[in-house]
Amino acid sequence: MKSANIATAKNQLSRLLKRVQRGETILITDRTRPVALLCPVSAADDMVARLIAEGAVLPPRQSSLDVDAFLGMPRPRLSAKQSLAQAVLEEREEGR
Q1: Do 20 and 38 contact (CB within 8 A), yes or no?
Q2: Considering only CA atoms, which of 44, 46, 4, 45 is closest in space to residue 26?
Q3: Does residue 12 register a pLDDT over 90?
Q4: For residue 30, what pLDDT band results from cuts at 50, 70 and 90?
Q5: What gap in Å lies between CA 32 and CA 29, rounded to an integer?
């Protein structure tokens, strides 16, 4: 299995993805510590199915994002003196 550090992956992503399209799996490392795998989608599907079967991960509870419900959620009200970042932080403190 080929490995690449984060800097190489960032700078040569297109080249690495071409190798993945040919069926290779590439290990991405951060200071020699494995952090991610680039693998063909079919291999990823098999990996996820295996992890679900082993009980290591849980499948999503709903199949997809309900866009209408998401867009219908209340938006933060901003005053002239308040930034969006401040509004988001306030919402987090309120538990929303």
Answers
A1: yes
A2: 4
A3: yes
A4: very high
A5: 5
Phi first, then psi, for residue 30 (nearest 5°) are -125, 105
Asked whether residue 81 is assigned to any structural domain, the reply reads: no
| Enclosing domain of residue 9 | 2-54
Here the tokens at position 80 are 């002239």
Q: In what order do the strands lie in the sheet with 26-30?
A: 2-5, 26-30, 33-38
pLDDT value of residue 24: 93
Helix (H, G, I), strand (E, B) or coil at 23: coil
DSSP H or E run through 9:
helix 6-11
Question: Cβ(34)–Cβ(42) under 8 Å?
Answer: no
Cβ neighbours of residue 5 closer than 8 Å, sequence gap 6 or more: 28, 29, 30, 31
CATH code, domain carrying 16 = 3.40.1620.10
Q: How many domains does the chain have?
A: 1
